Amino acid sequence: MDESLMPGQPPELFARIDDHEYPLPADGIAVTTLDKALNWARKNSLWPMTFGLACCAIEMMATTSARFDLARFGAEVFRGSPRQSDLMIIAGRVSNKMAPVVRQLYLQMPEPKWVISMGACATSTGVFNNYALIPVNQVIPVDVYVPGCPPRPEQLIYALMLLQKKIQDERGSVRKALNVD
Length: 181
Hints:
With 181 residues, the chain is α/β, with parallel strands linked by helices. It has a domain at 47-171: Rossmann fold, CATH 3.40.50. Helices cover 38% and strands 12% of the residues. The chain has helices at residues 11-19, 29-43, 56-62, 99-108, 120-124, 153-168, 173-178; strands at residues 48-52, 87-91, 94-95, 114-118, 133-134, 144-146. The strands form 2 sheets. Strands 1-2-4-6 form a 4-stranded parallel beta sheet. A two-stranded antiparallel ribbon has the order 3-5. Helix 3 (56-62) links the parallel strand 1 and strand 2. Helix 2 (29-43) runs antiparallel to helix 6. It starts with 10 loop residues before the first helix and ends with a helix. Mean pLDDT is 81; it is low at 16-20.
């Protein structure tokens, strides 16, 4: 740095400022901030599709009642169509005959999509451990497991909160949405 340009100023002050580099994050500031905004919107506006196969479906329906009020978490309207949902809640046992249907409905959902496995039957075939049943994670990928037979509505709400945390912490949402990289 040329001292003649700044007379009377200590040259080491300007040398420290000029020589110091402020590297940008690998993703870039704008993309990272946009990721946070996009994830915030996604986590607070989940569109669940219910797939009630057994007793757990009754508890799942109870979460939308006034007592538990799932609407507080942005997931109040259950969808009947996979093309309008981004969250599949599988409640109950999955048989070998039902597995292809579950898979097909999952594939019809738009990206990004998430799955909650609700109850012991969906997670590990539960008390009906026989040749005709399979755990749902052998058919489609599962994001959150809800234990219990049947699980209480509070447990499903907690699972939804865990999923919202997972969605908020995702990285690269903008790149995936724009199909970059």
